[in-house]
């Protein structure tokens, strides 16, 4: 609920209670957005539709092969802008349906990429149909607000004394002063109707755009298959890299120490008869090296799958992780069960990497971790009060995204300059071993 601004006079503040103020500002903002969207739609969509038709016709002459991809990219840029605006203004998310652009493609391949993509023709239908719906869903409700404001401000009454042909509402023209004064009760009906209706019509326009601009079921499935194929390749590469790292760590660390232990034990055996003290010293060194090798093996295993994760589950592992962070960490966990081990491991390391990034790079003073489960998805939110400006394509966050993508998970980052930074991660999964109560706490 929006608080009332302090600059409003006290009599106005008594009338405009917080709910009324919220309703008023919501309607006015929706009306302004509807007008801006209508202007953009009528200007750009008509122009782009004409250009698309002309460039398609010119394909016969060969020129269209160059023009069609350019115009189609322009249409996609405008459609993407509408996707972002409508998502921000109405909350209606419209996924991008386009096929990936071919790498190092010539003009003929670009032309085929555009004309064979079903999303191109759905964009064209959107160009045409959106123009038809602009008047009904955007202009008319916003005009109702403007017309109501005109009546409330008494413009018809003022113009009655200046222009003899002016009218308002059902009185056109106004033949006497009484009809001019009746603009106020009419406006008192029109303005609330416009303020109430406009947020809904703006959302209806967003739903209409979603119907045409979002991927079809087949296209969404194809995009998901492409994404899974790409993430599978990245996961295989990442696993190969991890295996090489483990092999290198074993070769250079624990294996080298175990070889040294074996050599020292062999030397001790040779010295045992003729120099027992030297043999004892070698055995002591061998015991020390064996302890180091064991510690390195434990660290290596902990990096693959932490023992606390296997013993206490994701909630206990995250609680333990929070205790090791040199910052205050609030932990709020509500999990009715445990995910499968691979998903649990991916979730734990994603949270750990996110927290590490916050500690190392964000200059944060406080971190909060929230875990929950809803409708078949494990939700993880890590928030810090640092300096912000985190880039989703950075090395650390990109690695987290790859780890989650292997399980068809997603990650989004909100990090305006100056902070705070919020990393939201989701993993589709099923839970087992129901719990009787959630856990939460502060570390």
Automatic annotation (TrEMBL):
Residues 45-212 form the Putative sensor domain. Its EC number is 2.7.13.3. The chain crosses the membrane at residues 20-39, 46-75, 124-145, 152-174. Residues 242-309 form the Signal transduction histidine kinase subgroup 3 dimerisation and phosphoacceptor domain. Keywords: ATP-binding, Kinase, Membrane, Nucleotide-binding, Phosphoprotein, Transferase, Transmembrane, Transmembrane helix, Two-component regulatory system. It comes from the Bacteria. It catalyses: ATP + protein L-histidine = ADP + protein N-phospho-L-histidine. GO terms for molecular function: kinase activity. Residues 347-429 form the Histidine kinase/HSP90-like ATPase domain. This is histidine kinase. It comes from Dactylosporangium cerinum. The lineage of its organism: Bacteria, Bacillati, Actinomycetota, Actinomycetes, Micromonosporales.
